[in-house]
Amino acid sequence: MKRYLDDLVRSDLERKMVVLTGPRQVGKTTLARQLMDHRQPAQYLNWDVAADRAVLQRQSWRLDSRLLVMDEIHKMPDWKAWLKGVVDGRPDGQALLVTGSARMETFRQSGESLAGRYFAYRLHPISVREWCATQGVTPEAALQHLLERGGYPEPCLAEDPVQAARWRAQYITDLLREDILEFSRIHELGTMRLFLDLLRERVGSPLSLASLARDLAVSPTTLKRYLDILQALFIVFTVTPWHRNVARAILASPKVYFYDTGLVRGDDGARFENAVAAMLLKNQQFLVDARGKQASLHYLRTKDGVEVDFALVEEGELSALVECKWADAAPHRALQRFANEFPEARAVQLVRHLRQPEQRGALQILPAAPWLAELAA
């Protein structure tokens, strides 16, 4: 299956190194191998494979490779300085693709600089827009399929729901046994698993780490570290409240969502909200990575608890307000309030099951599937 970043990455490889990150099993290796088919001879090296690791440490890969793919090299000690030397010393005509299932924000931190040497992309699960484009189905059929299977390629393309369920059960086991263990101590895995399970039941609600810490008999600082690990491994992402005062927004409680909607434990409304959140994040990061825009995803909430699910910000300005409803077509009062307060932002109430779209003043009440199909990615 051709992914939405395929052509962009292929084009950028002609100019600079490309760094491709994203969740485990989201399709990074498949995309890399498809790119290798079009740029032979090519070589794929994975730090987690002992034989490949030896080649990487000796730098004894084929010099005539037109595409060199390096996977999981962020696990190498001092990998950033090492990679800088590889980039600067590679032969003319050799493209370099670096992939990983953990975030690599160290590119933007102090230390050895890779500035000007790379383009970065974040690969996301399949969205309504992408499923429509690749499968030729309607937005409604795409959204229904993604709500049932989640957006990861293997369960999404599985022949039946049973195979998708088996994949997800193994996926959670692998995350705990392999990925999370790299960031935490083995005796913490039980608590980490309980924390993950609690998050699966709290999707879309402002997160109180202090409250969860009491339930789990650990400190809020420990849970904050666990949350950072889950975010670094692309298991969950947080949506913070929007406020013109950045400091106030940082202090307020975030909401937590899963990259894999299939991990959500909740009713239809919770899974739908998570799916919308994941697609809005994919859209936002695509605008940043592929189009060079400043964009971010937030939610709105007042001190008295009036809330709208999502607020989209572009170039520092509020561009859209989005409220998710499973079947309720009555105008959401908080959305109406914020639509009047921020007339420059498009106010949309997305309804999963809607008989007729409506325009209520500044508020649009629309069926969710077609609107999601029009996102940038």
Distance between the termini: 15 Å
Low-confidence stretches: 106-110
Number of strands: 13
Principal-axes shape call = globular
Strands of the widest sheet, in order across it, are: 7-6-8-9-10-11-13-12
The portion of residues assigned to helices is 40-55%
Continuous helix count: 15
Mean pLDDT over the residues: 91
Radius of gyration of CA atoms, rounded to a whole number: 21 Å
Furnish the topology, listing elements before pairings.
Elements lengths: L5 H7 L4 E5 L6 H10 L4 E5 L3 H9 L8 E5 L7 H11 L5 E6 L17 E5 L5 H8 L3 H11 L3 H5 L3 H23 L5 H12 L8 H8 L3 H13 L3 E6 L4 H6 L3 E4 L9 H24 L3 E7 L5 E8 L2 E9 L7 H9 L4 E6 L6 E3 L2 E5 H6 L4
Parallel strand pairs: 1-4, 1-5, 2-3, 3-4, 6-8, 10-11, 11-13
Antiparallel strand pairs: 6-7, 8-9, 9-10, 12-13
Give structural notes.
The protein has 377 residues and is of the alpha/beta class. It has 2 domains: 117 residues, Rossmann fold, CATH 3.40.50; 246 residues, no CATH class. Helix content is 43%, strand content 20%. It has 15 helices and 13 strands. The strands form 2 sheets. The chain has an 8-stranded mixed sheet, with helices on both faces. A 5-stranded parallel sheet has the order 2-3-4-1-5. About 1% of the residues have low confidence.
